[in-house]
Write a structure and sequence with these properties.
The protein has about 260 residues and is α+β, with helices and mostly antiparallel strands. Helix content is about 15%, strand content about 25%.
Amino acid sequence: MAETRFPASLAESLIPSAPPSTYYIPNFLSPPEQAQLLHKINSVPLPTWRHLTHRRLQAHPSPLTQSNTLLAAPLPQWLQEPIIPRLLSIPLTTSPPNDHTNSNNNIFHDSPHRAPNHCLINEYKPGQGIHPHEDGAAYHPTVATISLNAPIVLDIYRKPAPDAALDKRPAYRILQEPGSLLISTKEMYTGYLHGIAEVEVDEELRGGEGGVVNWGMVGEEWRGRFEAGGGRWRREMRVSLTFRDVVRVKSLGKGLGFLSSGGKR
C-alpha cells in the first residue's frame, strides 16, 4: 500500500520536462483517504451532480454565477480536510535553518484569498474526456488537481495565436495516478491548453519521446503495472478534484438580501 509522501518544498516536485511551474506529487493522499473521499462524493444527493454530454460534475460550494462570481460560502469540511491544510503546508522553496521568511510561501500565498475557495469534481468514464481548454480569468492562475480511483493522461497543448488553428498533437503528456496531486500555475496556466482524450485505452505510458513527461516521478507500483501492460492502460472510471481560488467573491447582504463585495481573508 502506497503511503503519503510530501516533499520538503514544491521545488522538489517540479516536472523537469514540462513547462515551468508544473508540479507533481504521486502519493499526496493515502488509499484510505482516497476511499473516504470517493465515498463522500458518491453519497451526495443526486441533484448535486450536473450531467453534461460527456461527463458529470459537482461544484462546491456552488457553481459560479453568469458573471463568474462565487457566492461566499465555505467548502464542505470533507473537501477541506486533509487536502487544503496539507497543500498549504508545502513551501515553494526550502528555507535555511532559522529562516522563517518562507513560512507562508505556499503555492496560494499570492492568490486573492490565500487558499482555494472552490472545488470542481469531474467523473470520467472510459471513453469520456474534455476538449482542449483553458481555465480563464475567473480564477487565480493556480490550479491543484487530485486524481482518484484510476489513472489518466492529461494532454497539454500550446495555445495557438488568435487567428491560428490548434495543433492537435499534444506538446506534453502528464500521467495522473490515483492519489496524486498536479499543480499548474503561471506559464503553464496562461500559455497552454489542457484536455483529456476521449479514448478507452491510454497508450505510450512510458518515458522518452512520445511518452509522459513525468514518468520518472510516477509511483513504482503504477509504473510496474504500465510496464507489464506494454505501456497501455484500459481506462476505468476516474474522478478528479480541481481546487482553485475564484477571484470574484460576493456575500449575501443582510436585510434585503442584496449582494455585496467580499474582501480578502
